[in-house]
Amino acid sequence: MIYRVVRHDDAMSLNMETLGMKRRTTRAEMQAFVRRWQRIGKLERDELRRTPAEIKLRQLAALMASVDTFGWREALSGEEDIVRQRWQRLRRCYGV
What is the DSSP string of 65-88? Predict the structure, then answer.
């Protein structure tokens, strides 16, 4: 589906028909939508808090081992210098 932006009174708005929407979302529907996602966010945070450190470390190790598989090495290596500079600054500040 291609999204088309149309101009109305110098404001940008999406053409509802192009988006496949038949009517506008009501305030109550939007509030219910936001409440649902807030509940989901709370459930995810609670689940993360309950996850033991051993499992979190295993998950981190799996991600780190996947760097080449997902093609992340180049993207991550571009930030290495910045991270090293930050660590050096912290070490100087705290005399470590």
Answer: HTHHHHT-HHHHHTTHHHHHHHHH
